[in-house]
C-alpha cells in the first residue's frame, strides 16, 4: 500500500521543484505584470499604492506614435534578420555540405560569435562602426572611398548586420545537420537521373529540408524579439527612435520615464505578439507531423 | 641652522594644533562609522575618490562608495530612497532629480544640520558657494517651485559645478588668423569655415545622439539665444523663434561638425576633440582634465578656453551634481559631516587640485589651483553667468526631455522640419503638463 | 574516410568566412592590449607596443600589487567576476538537477496535468527577459521579502548585515532564481529528447533488482544522458553568464555581474576603449573555452533543441 502511494506520488515529486520555481518566478510575475498593466504605477510606489486606471495604459500606447514606431522597428528588425540569416545560412550550408578535412574545426569557429555575450558583441561592433576611428571606415578610407555614417544614418541596417554576424551560424549549423541527414537514396537517384546540382538543390534538397527550416526560422524569429543588449550597447535606440526595439522601450519606460504601468502594458503587447508566433509554430509542427504520419501510413498501405 | 629650527618649531606648533583639535574634535563621536555613499561615474567624482582617503585620515570616518553611471544611479536611488531603511547615507544627485526627491519627501532638509552647533562648522562660509548652483541644485520650493525664493529651503549642496565653456584649438585659430567667437553668429560662421580651411576637420563637436544628448546640446544654445522651454505660466514656448533658432544652430553645428556627428554621444564628441578631429568644443567644463591627459588626448597644450558665446544674453549651462542626505539614511549626522567637509574651502580646493570642478568662488581664484590649471579663472568667470533656470527642474521633465531629445535627433538625421518638430514637442509637452496638473490654476 | 579535393575558390571562401566570424573577436583581443590614444588615434595594424595596462586597470581589485598608473581602483572587476561565476554556476547546477527530474517525469510517467505542464513549459520558452523586467523588479524588491522584525529576517540581518527588510533583490539568490526559471523550459525540452532514447528495458531491469524510482533515475538514467546534460549545461551557463537586463535590475553594489560592469563602464563621460575591450575579453573567455572544447555538445544541443521545436 505504501509503496503504491509512493509510486503514484513519484511523478509529482519529480515535477515539484521545477513546477514550484516556474510558478513563483515565471508565472506569478507574468500575472503580476498583467495586473500592473491596468495601473498607474511608478517605481517609488509598491503596487498596492498605485491607482487602478483600467485600459488607459493600453489605449495610450495604441495611439502613441513613439510606441508604434518602436513596434515597427522591432518587426522590421526581426523579419530582416531572419530573412537575411536564412538566406545566407542555408546558402552556406548547401555550399559547404562537402566532405572536407577540418569541417569540425570550421563549425567550432562559426559558433564562437553566438556564444559571446551580447554586451560584448555590441561593444565590438560599436567600435568597428565608429565614424572616424572604427575598422570599417578606416578601411574604406584607405581604399579611397568615403566613410559611411554607420550608426547615424544607417543605424538600423548596422544593427541588423551585427545580428546577422552573430546568428547566421545558428541557421547554418542546423541547416547543415538537416542536409546531412537527408536520405542518401533520393539524392543518389537524382544524380543517376542526371539532375544538375541546381536541380538537386531546388527539387530535392530544399523541399526535404523545409520542415526543419521552417521551425528553425520561427525559432530564430522568436529569439529576434528578445534581442536587447546588442542594440542597447551599440545605439541606445537612437538616432531618433530608429533602433528602439520594443524590449528597449520597455526598459526605458520603466527606468527613465518611471512609468511601470505603461511598461507592463507594453510588455503585455509584446507577449501577445510572441504568443501568436509560438502558436503558429506549434500549428506548423503539428501539421507537419500529421502529414508525415499520413505519408508513412500510405507507404505502409502500399 | 635657523631654517631647521624654524621647521622644528613649526612642527611643534602643528602638533599642538593637532592635539587641541583632538580635544574638541567634532568628528570624534562618529569615528569608526562607515558611510555608504552613491556617486556617479564622472570625472569630478573620480577626483573625489582620490581625496576621500584624506577625509578618513582626518576624521576616522570610513567611506564606501558605490559609483554608477548617472542614469543608472538615478534608477538605483529611486529604489533605495523609497525603502523604509535605505542603504545610502549620502547621495549625489543630478540636478533634475532634485524635483522628484524633494517632492517625494526623500531628502533631508539641511536646516536642522546647519542649526546644530555640534555639527555645523562656523568657518564654512556658505556665501562663497556659487549662487546660481546653490539655487539650481540645492534649493527647492521657491520660485517656480524649483528655485530659490522666500518659500524655498535647502535640500542639498552643489558639488561638482559644471558650466559650458568654449574650448578651441589655439594652433588652428592662429594658423588661419581666426578670432575666438564671442557671439553665436561668429560661432556658427567659424564652425562652418573650419572644414573649408582644414579639410577633414570638423568645426565644433557637439553631442547630438538621440535622447538626452541631443536635448542637452539644444538647451546649450537655447538659453543664450533667449529661449526657454516654458513661459511663466508653464505654457511651452520651445517652438518660438528663439527655439527654432537654437535648433537650427544645433543643426548647422552638426552639419559642419566632424564626420558622424549626428550619432555622437558625449563620449564620441569629446573623443573627436581629443583626437584632434575638431577645432572647437562647446560643452561642460569637466573635460579639462582629460584634454590635458596625454594618455587620452592628442591636443595637450593646444587648447584655449573662452566663455560660452553670447546670443541675446549670456547663459551658460548649470549642470553637475548636488549632494544630499536621504531621509532613510542610517548615519545622517556623519553624512552631514562628510558633506560639509567635501564642500568646505579645504575640501573644495583638494578636489580642484585633483582635477575636479570646484563649487566655490574662492577656489576658482585660488593661486595654487590656477597655477596647476590655468583655465580655472576663465571657468570661474563663466560660472558667474551660469543660468540657474537653464532647464526646468520639474518631475515630468524626464519625459519631456526624452521626447525633445528623440525629436531633435530626427531633425538631425531624418530631415524633419525644425518648426514642425518643435511644434510637435510643444504640443506633447502641453499634454504632459496638463496631465501633471500644471494648468489647474488657469 | 576519404576527403574530397576542392578548387581554390572554395578554400578562399572558407578563409573569408573564418576571417569574418573570428575577425571581430581578434580585433577586440588586439585592441585590449593597446593604449586609448592608440585605439582612438585610428592607428590600425599590428605595429604597436602591447601593454597589459588595461588588464591591470580592470583587475585592480584582485591584483597583489598596485599598478603604477592608477591612483585608486575604481573598477571592481574581480568582484564582479566572482559574482558572475557564483550566479552562473549555481543557476546552471540547479537548473540541470531540477530540469532533469522534471524532464524524466514528463517522459516516463503518465499523470494528471502532464499535458498541461508539458504545453506550458513550451509556451513560456518564448517569454523575453524584457517582459519579465517590470514584474520581477516589483516583486523582488517589494513582495518577495522577509520582514526584518521576524526571526528569520532578524537573523539574516544580524549575520549578513545590511539594512531594511530582507528582500530577494540585491542578493545572489534573487538573480539565480530568475535565471533558473528562465532556463528551465529550455532545459526540460532538450533533456526530454535525450531521455526518450534511454531504453526502457534498462530501467525495468534495475527496478526488478529492487531499485526505487530515484535510484533508477540517478544510477541508470543520468549517466546515459550525459551528452544531453553537457549541452544543456553549456546553454544555461551561457545565458546566465551573459545576461544583462534582469541582473541590472536586481543586483546592488555587491552583486553586480560582469555584463553590468561593462555597460556601466561605457559611461558617456569617458569611453575608455582599451579597458572596455579588456573587460569584454575577460567576459568572453569562459564561453570561448567552452566552445573550443565542447563544440560537439553545443551542436548536439542546438539541433536537439531546435529540430523538435
Automatic annotation (TrEMBL), chain C:
The keyword Phosphoprotein does not apply. Its main location: membrane. It is found in: Cell membrane. It holds the Pfam family BPD_transp_1. Belongs to the binding-protein-dependent transport system permease family. PANTHER family: INNER MEMBRANE ABC TRANSPORTER PERMEASE PROTEIN YCJP, MALTOSE TRANSPORT SYSTEM PERMEASE-RELATED. This is Carbohydrate ABC transporter membrane protein 2, CUT1 family. It comes from Roseibium denhamense.
Amino acid at each position: 500500500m505504501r509503496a503504491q502511494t509512493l509510486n503514484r506520488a513519484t511523478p509529482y515529486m519529480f515535477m515539484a521543484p521545477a513546477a514550484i520555481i516556474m510558478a513563483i518566478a515565471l508565472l506569478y510575475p507574468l500575472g503580476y505584470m498583467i495586473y500592473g498593466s491596468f495601473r498607474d504605477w511608478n517605481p517609488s510606489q509598491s503596487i498596492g499604492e498605485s491607482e487602478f486606471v483600467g485600459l488607459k495604459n493600453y489605449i495610450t500606447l495604441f495611439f502613441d506614435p513613439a510606441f508604434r514606431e518602436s513596434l515597427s522597428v522591432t518587426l522590421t528588425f526581426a523579419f530582416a534578420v531572419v530573412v537575411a540569416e536564412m538566406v545566407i545560412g542555408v546558402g552556406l550550408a548547401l555550399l559547404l555540405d562537402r566532405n572536407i578535412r577540418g569541417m569540425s574545426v570550421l563549425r567550432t569557429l562559426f559558433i564562437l560569435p553566438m556564444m559571446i555575450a551580447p554586451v560584448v558583441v555590441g561593444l565590438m561592433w560599436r567600435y568597428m562602426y565608429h565614424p572616424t576611428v572604427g575598422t570599417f571606415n578606416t578601411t574604406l578610407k584607405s581604399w579611397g572611398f568615403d566613410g559611411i555614417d554607420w550608426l547615424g544614418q544607417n543605424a538600423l541596417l548596422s544593427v541588423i548586420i551585427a545580428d546577422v554576424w552573430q546568428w547566421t551560424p545558428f541557421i547554418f549549423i542546423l541547416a547543415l545537420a538537416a542536409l546531412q541527414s537527408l536520405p542518401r537514396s533520393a539524392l543518389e537517384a537524382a544524380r543517376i537521373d542526371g539532375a544538375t546540382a541546381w536541380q538537386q538543390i531546388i527539387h530535392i534538397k530544399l523541399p526535404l529540408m523545409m520542415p526543419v527550416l521552417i521551425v528553425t526560422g520561427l525559432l530564430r524569429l522568436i529569439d529576434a524579439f528578445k534581442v536587447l543588449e546588442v542594440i542597447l550597447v551599440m545605439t541606445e535606440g537612437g538616432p531618433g527612435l530608429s533602433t528602439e526595439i520594443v524590449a528597449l522601450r520597455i526598459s526605458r519606460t520603466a527606468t527613465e520615464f518611471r512609468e511601470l504601468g505603461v511598461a507592463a502594458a507594453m510588455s503585455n503587447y509584446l507577449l501577445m505578439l510572441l504568443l501568436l508566433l509560438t502558436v503558429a509554430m506549434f500549428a506548423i509542427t503539428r501539421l507537419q507531423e500529421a502529414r508525415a504520419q499520413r505519408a508513412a501510413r500510405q507507404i505502409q498501405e502500399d | 641652522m635657523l631654517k631647521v629650527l624654524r621647521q622644528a618649531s613649526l612642527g611643534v606648533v602643528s602638533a599642538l594644533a593637532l592635539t587641541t583639535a583632538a580635544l574638541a574634535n567634532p568628528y570624534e563621536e562618529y569615528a569608526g562609522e562607515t558611510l555608504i555613499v552613491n556617486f556617479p561615474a564622472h570625472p569630478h567624482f573620480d577626483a573625489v575618490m582620490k581625496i576621500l582617503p584624506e577625509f578618513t585620515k582626518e576624521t576616522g570616518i570610513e567611506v564606501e562608495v558605490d559609483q554608477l553611471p548617472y542614469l543608472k544611479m538615478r534608477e538605483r536611488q529611486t529604489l533605495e530612497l523609497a525603502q523604509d531603511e535605505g542603504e545610502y547615507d549620502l547621495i549625489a544627485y543630478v540636478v533634475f532629480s532634485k524635483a522628484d526627491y524633494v517632492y517625494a519627501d526623500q531628502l533631508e532638509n539641511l536646516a536642522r544640520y546647519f542649526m546644530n552647533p555640534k555639527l555645523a562648522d562656523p568657518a564654512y562660509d556658505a556665501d562663497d558657494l556659487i549662487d546660481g548652483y546653490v539655487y539650481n541644485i540645492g534649493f527647492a520650493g521657491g520660485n517656480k517651485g524649483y528655485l530659490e525664493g522666500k518659500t524655498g529651503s535647502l535640500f542639498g549642496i552643489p558639488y561638482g559645478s559644471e558650466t559650458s565653456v568654449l574650448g578651441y584649438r589655439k594652433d588652428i585659430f592662429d594658423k588661419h588668423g581666426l578670432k575666438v567667437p564671442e557671439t553665436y553668429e561668429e560661432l556658427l560662421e567659424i564652425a562652418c569655415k573650419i572644414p573649408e580651411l582644414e579639410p577633414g576637420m570638423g568645426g565644433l563637436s557637439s553631442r547630438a545622439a538621440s535622447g538626452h544628448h541631443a536635448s542637452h546640446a539644444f538647451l546649450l544654445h537655447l538659453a543664450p539665444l533667449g529661449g526657454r522651454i516654458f513661459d511663466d505660466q508653464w505654457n511651452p514656448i520651445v517652438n518660438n523663434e528663439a527655439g527654432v533658432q537654437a535648433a537650427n544652430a544645433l543643426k548647422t553645428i552638426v552639419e559642419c561638425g566632424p564626420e558622424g556627428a549626428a550619432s555622437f554621444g558625449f563620449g564620441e564628441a569629446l573623443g573627436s576633440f581629443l583626437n584632434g578631429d575638431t577645432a572647437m568644443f562647446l560643452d561642460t567644463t569637466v573635460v579639462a582634465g582629460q584634454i590635458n591627459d596625454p594618455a587620452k588626448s592628442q591636443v595637450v597644450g593646444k587648447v584655449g578656453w573662452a566663455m560660452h558665446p553670447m546670443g541675446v544674453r549670456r547663459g551658460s549651462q548649470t549642470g553637475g551634481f548636488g549632494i544630499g542626505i536621504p531621509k532613510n539614511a542610517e548615519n545622517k549626522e556623519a553624512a552631514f559631516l562628510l558633506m560639509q567637509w567635501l564642500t568646505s574651502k579645504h575640501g573644495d580646493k583638494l578636489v580642484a587640485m585633483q582635477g575636479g570642478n570646484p563649487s566655490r568662488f574662492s577656489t576658482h581664484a585660488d593661486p595654487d589651483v590656477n597655477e596647476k590649471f590655468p583655465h580655472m579663472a576663465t571657468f570661474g568667470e563663466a560660472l558667474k553667468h551660469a543660468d540657474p533656470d537653464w532647464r526646468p527642474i520639474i518631475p515630468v521633465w524626464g519625459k519631456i526631455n526624452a521626447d525633445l531629445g528623440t525629436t531633435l535627433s530626427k531633425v538631425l538625421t531624418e530631415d524633419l522640419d525644425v518648426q514642425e518638430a518643435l511644434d510637435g514637442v510643444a504640443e506633447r509637452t502641453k499634454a504632459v503638463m496638463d496631465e501633471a496638473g500644471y494648468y489647474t490654476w488657469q | 574516410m576519404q576527403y574530397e579535393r576542392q578548387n581554390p575558390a572554395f578554400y578562399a571562401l572558407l578563409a573569408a568566412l573564418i576571417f569574418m566570424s573570428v575577425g571581430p573577436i581578434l580585433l577586440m583581443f588586439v585592441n585590449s592590449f593597446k593604449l586609448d590614444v592608440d585605439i582612438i588615434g585610428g592607428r590600425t595594424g599590428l605595429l604597436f607596443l602591447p601593454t597589459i595596462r588595461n588588464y591591470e586597470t580592470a583587475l585592480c581589485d584582485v591584483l597583489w600589487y598596485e599598478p603604477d598608473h592608477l591612483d585608486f581602483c575604481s573598477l571592481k572587476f574581480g568582484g564582479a567576476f566572482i559574482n558572475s561565476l557564483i550566479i552562473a554556476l549555481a543557476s546552471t547546477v540547479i537548473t540541470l538537477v531540477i530540469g532533469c527530474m522534471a524532464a524524466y517525469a514528463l517522459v516516463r510517467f503518465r499523470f494528471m496535468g502532464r499535458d498541461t505542464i508539458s504545453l506550458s513549459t513550451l509556451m513560456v520558452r518564448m517569454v523575453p527577459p524584457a517582459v519579465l523586467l517590470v514584474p520581477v523588479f516589483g516583486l523582488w524588491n517589494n513582495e518577495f521579502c522577509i520582514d526584518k522584525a521576524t526571526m528569520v529576517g532578524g537573523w539574516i540581518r544580524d549575520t549578513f548585515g545590511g539594512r531594511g527588510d530582507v528582500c530577494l533583490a540585491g542578493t545572489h539568490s534573487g538573480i539565480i532564481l530568475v535565471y533558473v526559471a528562465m532556463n528551465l523550459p529550455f532545459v526540460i525540452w532538450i533533456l526530454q529528447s535525450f531521455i526518450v532514447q534511454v531504453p526502457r528495458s534498462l530501467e525495468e531491469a534495475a527496478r526488478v533488482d529492487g531499485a526505487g524510482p530515484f535510484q533508477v533515475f540517478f544510477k541508470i538514467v543520468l549517466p546515459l544522458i550525459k551528452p544531453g546534460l553537457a549541452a544543456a549545461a553549456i546553454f544555461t551557463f551561457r545565458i546566465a553568464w551573459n545576461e544583462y537586463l534582469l541582473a541590472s535590475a536586481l543586483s546592488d553594489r555587491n552583486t553586480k555581474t560582469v555584463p553590468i560592469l561593462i555597460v556601466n563602464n561605457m559611461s558617456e563621460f569617458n569611453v575608455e576603449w582599451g579597458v572596455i575591450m579588456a573587460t569584454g575579453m575577460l567576459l568572453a573567455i569562459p564561453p570561448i573555452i567552452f566552445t573550443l572544447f565542447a563544440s560537439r555538445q553545443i551542436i548536439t544541443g542546438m539541433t536537439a533543441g531546435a529540430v523538435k521545436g
